[in-house]
Amino acid sequence: MGKKDDQNYVQLRGHVPKQLARQFKEFCLKEEINYSEGIEMILTAFFSIYNLKGNNNYSNHK
Length: 62
Fold this sequence. Notes:
The protein is mostly helical. It has a domain at 17-52. It has helices spanning 18-31, 35-52.
């Protein structure tokens, strides 16, 4: 079963500056991962850092 059919996964979508998109694509190519894996990796790293700073109250962020 792929992630598309896995109920534990959802699709994210958004608009980012072109330069940031290029950096992301280059990152995925260098790491030999697909975009889905890249997004998951980057979001996991971001929230790990975010939580280390004591920002673990998500109720104020909608």
